[in-house]
Every structure is written in C-alpha cells, then in structure tokens.
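Quick start: what a row looks like.
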Amino acid sequence: MRCWPKRAKRGMTHVDFGAKETPEWRLILILRGARIAGDSPEMPDADIGIQGGRIQVIQPGLVADGEEIDIGRRLVSPGLIESHIHLDKSRILDRTVAAPKGNADHMARVAAVKPGFTVEDVYARAQASLEQSLLNGIIHMRTHVEVDPNVGMVGFDALEQLAKDYAWAIDLELCVFAQEGMVDVQEADANVVAGLKRGAALIGGAPSYDTDRAGQIRRIFALAREYDVDVDIHLDVGPTTEDMDVYLVCELTEEMGWQGRVAIGHGSKYSNLPPAELVELGKVMAGAGVTLTVLPATDLFTQGRHQTHSQIRGVADANTLIEAGVNCCLSTNNVLNPFTPFGDGSLVRIANMYANIVQRGTPDELAECFQMLTDRPARLLGREDYGLNAGNPADLVVWDASSTDEAIATIAQPLFSLKSGRRIFTRAAAQLHRP
C-alpha cells in the first residue's frame, strides 16, 4: 500500500544556501536568477543546475559549466498538477449547447451525445485539451473517464492511448467511473471492472446520479480494495447541506486504511455550511485523510440555478478546510461542454477565480491557492519525487511573475516548462513597443 506522504515544509525545498563552498559542476542546463516557489522574499535568487533529467543542485552563485538561461528574477515552480478533469467529454459544444439560465439539465445534454463518441473523436478532443494544458504549465494530470453503457469503453480506449503518446510531456492517470448510475446497471459495473483490470490508476463515481447513493459508494470502496487503487468520487453537489455523503466516505476510508488515497470532487454543499460547522466537517475529513478538490468553474456555473436572484455561489472555501487540516486542491473539471462552456487550460486562472469567489486576497492566502495547484495535489497523487529538490525530476515551470501570490493575483503567464529536463513549450514574454 502506498504510504501517505507528508507535505514538505516551505523554505526547505532545495539545498542549504549557507554552504561555504560551491562545487564545480558540469551540467546540461543552468537556470540563473530564479525566484524559488515557496521561498520568503528575503531569500536570495538561486541558480538551478540540471543534468540527466534531474535537478542536481539549487543554490545562489552556482559555479558550473553548461547551457545557461537567465530567468531574470522570475518565479520558478514545480510543474502544475491538474487533479480533476474530464478529457473525454471536453470540447463538445459543436454537438450540444449549455443550458440556458434557470435550466439545470447539464447531465442530460451530455448523455444525449455520448453514443456518438468514437475513439478517434475522443482522442482528438482530449488531445486538444491536453496540449492546451501543457501550454499552461501542467505536467501531471488525473482525468476521469466515463464508461456508462451509452459510451462503453470508447473513452477509455482513447485516453489510454493518449497517455502513452504524451508520456514525454505529462504523467496522465485515468480514473474509471460510471457517471449515470452503477447500482443495478450491470454493464456499467462490468465496464468499471474492465477499466480496473486494464490498469486504471483509480476508481471514481457519481452517487448523486444513482438510485442508491450509499450502495454505489460501498461498491466503489469494495472495488478499490480488490484492485488496490485509489478513490476519487464526485460528491455532495447541491444547494443544501442535507443528505451529505462525505461522512460515509470518511468512515469507509478509515475502515479500509485508505487515508491519503481518497478524494472528493466538488463538495458544493460545503459552501452552504456556517463557518463553525465547516470547521467541524474539516476535522472529520482531516482525521480520515480525505482530500477535497474544489472545482470553481463548474460549481459556479451550475449551482444556484433554482434561484432567480441573490444566487448562491456553490464553491467550497478550501482555505478554511486547510486550516482545519484537510488537504485541498483546485482543478478545472470540464472544458467547453454543458457543465462548463468555458476553459483555456489555465489552472492559475481557475485559482484566481476561486480566490475572488471565496474572497481570499492576502499574500499568504494567494500563496496557499498556488499550493493547491502544486504541492497539495502532489500529495493526493502520491508524487513523492515532486518539487524543487535536488535529486527530483526536473519538472518545472518559469512564470512571468516573481512570487506565487503574484502569479495568482495577476493570472501570470508561464514562459516555459521542463519535463525531466526536456523543454516542453516556450512562450515569449509580452513586449510593449513604445513610440
């Protein structure tokens, strides 16, 4: 069983700046003048030495031979992590449209077009969304893939191949699940099992669309135990705090010893809890080691549609839950489909939107938002080799900003990224042409 990784302390992400002597290095690439994500403003700029696809050293004034790139005191962070997305049903607005204001039939609109999906179609749409994500600094990704009877294994076939084809640029793991019901739907259950047998990294679900919510949750955990995979469930979506399933999920997590291996997506009901009750919920989730992934774009667009004015926002305050000890992430969920007819692959934009909604704007709060795109989802995905540490893979992003809070506040553009030391993309910084 995978261990439950602990979060690294901020300020301990690289070698000791107090070293008396600087070794002579012969390196493939040296990034000069970097502002390291998580460092305090008082910390000096650092140089990053890369060799063999890994970070060899991070320190100021590095004496070394090799290709050099002057970062110009810009922020360098680990690659971003998209921890909850649906590549298989992205970019389908050419065949269906978003529900008009006051209408909430998002599921029906997607379900109606799924029978027309083909492996080639899913692959092409998912490829476009994945490449856009790469251009926004994402290096690790967890995608959900639906295997309901009206689509079968089409999406799984496409995304399984996509993961292989883009292994040079991104680590893509598949979460297999039935979106439209699993209890008493034998073909859906069989397809989920088939995905697990073919190597799906984890199992998900959507109990709110099932005839027996608790029955689906118990079945998911039973399969997770049988195939020794993690769990990532769409849960507690709605405008009230009634009938929340999070407590059953926490109970089963503890019973199975799956702490650190279970995530909840959405949790929009939690946004309606009074502060004290939200903190109490946080204590339960933290005790069980259950992560919450907040999906601001989708929840903001879909929630409150039963109201004509003063509409609820439906976006859970992850910062409060983090203070209670919960691991929380921010993610995209949907791109250009009826659940979210928007999307540009930018997690920084998602985090900026989230911060606006829950009214978090101090430097520390915005820095925590950046953590919800990096270190926190790395913990969820069990990436023990993640981060700007000597010896770790050189998976990093250079930003047109000087700090993580500035990156969120300004929706900063990533200028280039490396995956295992290999350049993935390059974007020129904007240049004003004065008269």
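That is the whole record. The CA atoms of residues 40 and 174 lie 36 Å apart. Residues 119-134 form the longest helix (16 residues).
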